[in-house]
Amino acid sequence: MSSRRELTADSAVEVVAALVSETLQAHGIVAVLSGGAVVSIYTENEFQSHDLDYISSETVGRISAAMQSIGFVRERGRHFHHPATAFVVEFPAGPLMVGDQMVHRHAELETSYGVIRLLTPTDAVKDRLSAFFHWQDRQALEQALAICRRQPVDEADLARWAKAERQPGRFGIFLERLRLQS
């Protein structure tokens, strides 16, 4: 995909994510999409996010140069916007974590717009469950379940992770809801 692709007000999250992922990769920047945008992508927009969170340990200067090359403007800190789209791209500092677990691998989703580097479906569920576990975020629970409806996830890995997070009760709620939707 060419980094010259034009963003519009109608550009879907996948278009923005692919353009940003490929641009960062071309600039030698390691960054992985996480958060709500991953939920949007994995659930075919059942839950729509208007921000894209790329986790990277790269300096804001290098990120800014890459983002400016495709028309994004730095707002403040590590937040960028593009005048043609409502999406905001944020770069929280790394490392990439789900709860207390460091993430060592990511998925690469090939789309017609380009390759998106993002959390695996299993790690995306952990990301959402972390919000449910620690902040009682019920929408995050629904998002985790929505990912499970549409994507293959490793339930044994989820169980090991939840045990390490010391959240057996809330993980039990998730499992009960997961079994009900099957």
Features of this protein?
7 helices; 45% helix; two-stranded antiparallel sheet; Beta Polymerase, domain 2; 9 strands; 5-stranded mixed beta sheet; alpha+beta
Give a nutshell description of this structure.
With 182 residues, the protein is of the alpha+beta class.
Low-confidence stretches: none
The assigned CATH architecture of the largest domain is 2-Layer Sandwich
Give the oligomeric state: single chain
Strand content: 15-25%
Radius of gyration: 16 Å
- Number of beta-strand segments: 9
Q: How does the overall form come out from the CA principal axes?
A: globular
Helix content: 40-55%
String of helices and strands: HEHEHEEEEEEEHHHH
Distance between the termini: 38 Å
**Mean of pLDDT:** 94
Count of discrete alpha- or pi-helical segments spanning 4 or more residues: 7
